[in-house]
């Protein structure tokens, strides 16, 4: 099992390249969904101790909309796509064209729930597809689970079990941008939490040495 001490800038660069490939695929798929030009970037890959993850997302008590998926296959793990509740409302309004969606109704309306779940499906599917192509590993996402809650509650499911055998997570920050309308974008956090043993599998598949 790879440890934080073994995780180098080179390992980060490898995962960032996988993320960049996936970002392009996801942007294309999302553009087709919303019938607009959408860009998606992956500006950073960070190794973060579990006890600092909630602060990176905005604090334990920040209310967010999150899509959670379990990754199965050769390198299992957990994936989250997290938006602040304000950004989630903005995105669902863009996706659906329904400006009546609010923070209070976002989970009550079938159209907004479906939009967020479909977005999670697109992001996870595109990311994992490029991940599989790049590594040769077989990976598959579960049906996405959508929730609106505080960051600490959202992440607890994916972190508690893993924190018993590891103490860090890979954080991949993403940004969605509506190019046609020149918006500043919908800023969200895309979290990849491989099971501890999956790191070894991923880097071995790529022929990346682990000292």
Q: What labels would you give this structure?
A:
single chain; 211 residues; Chemotaxis protein chec; seven-stranded antiparallel β-sheet; globular
Percent of sequence in beta strands:
25-35%
How would you classify the helix and strand content by structural class? alpha+beta
Shape: globular
Question: What is the H-and-E element order?
Answer: HEHEEHHEEHEEH
According to CATH, the fold-level topology is Chemotaxis protein chec
Distance between the termini: 11 Å
- State the major sheet: 7 strands, antiparallel
| Total strands | 7
Level-2 CATH architecture: 3-Layer(aba) Sandwich
Tell me about this structure.
The protein is α+β, with helices and mostly antiparallel strands. The chain has a single domain (4-205), classed as 3-Layer(aba) Sandwich (Chemotaxis protein chec). 45% of the residues lie in helices and 28% in strands. It contains 6 helices and 7 strands; from the N terminus they run αβαββααββαββα. It has helices at residues 9-34, 50-57, 85-96, 110-135, 151-163, 196-205, and strands at residues 38-49, 63-73, 77-84, 139-141, 145-150, 168-178, 186-194. Strands 1, 2, 3, 4, 5, 6 and 7 form a 7-stranded antiparallel sheet that branches. β2 and β3 form a beta hairpin. α3 (85-96) crosses α4. The longest helix is centred in the first third of the chain and has 26 residues, at 9-34. It is globular, with a radius of gyration of 17 Å. It starts with 8 loop residues before the first helix and ends in a 6-residue tail after the last helix.
């Amino acid at each position: 099992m790879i440890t934080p001490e073994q995780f180098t800038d080179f390992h980060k660069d490898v995962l960032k390249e996988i993320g960049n490939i996936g970002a392009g695929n996801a942007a294309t798929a999302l553009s087709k969904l919303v019938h607009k030009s959408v860009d998606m970037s992956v500006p950073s890959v960070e190794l973060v101790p579990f006890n600092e993850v909630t602060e990176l997302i905005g604090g334990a008590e920040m209310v967010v909309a999150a899509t959670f998926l379990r990754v199965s296959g050769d390198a299992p793990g957990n994936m989250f796509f997290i938006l602040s509740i304000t950004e989630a409302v903005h995105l669902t309004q863009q996706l659906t064209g329904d400006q009546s969606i609010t923070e209070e109704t976002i989970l009550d309306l079938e159209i907004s729930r479906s939009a967020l779940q479909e977005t999670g499906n697109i992001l996870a599917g595109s990311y994992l597809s490029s991940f599989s192509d790049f590594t040769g590993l077989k990976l598959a996402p579960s049906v996405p689970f959508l929730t609106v809650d505080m960051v600490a509650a959202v992440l607890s499911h994916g972190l508690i079990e893993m924190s018993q055998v590891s103490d860090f997570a890979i954080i991949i920050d993403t940004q969605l941008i509506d190019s046609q309308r020149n918006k500043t974008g919908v800023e969200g956090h895309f979290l990849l939490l491989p099971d501890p043993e999956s790191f070894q599998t991923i880097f071995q598949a790529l022929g990346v040495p682990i000292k």
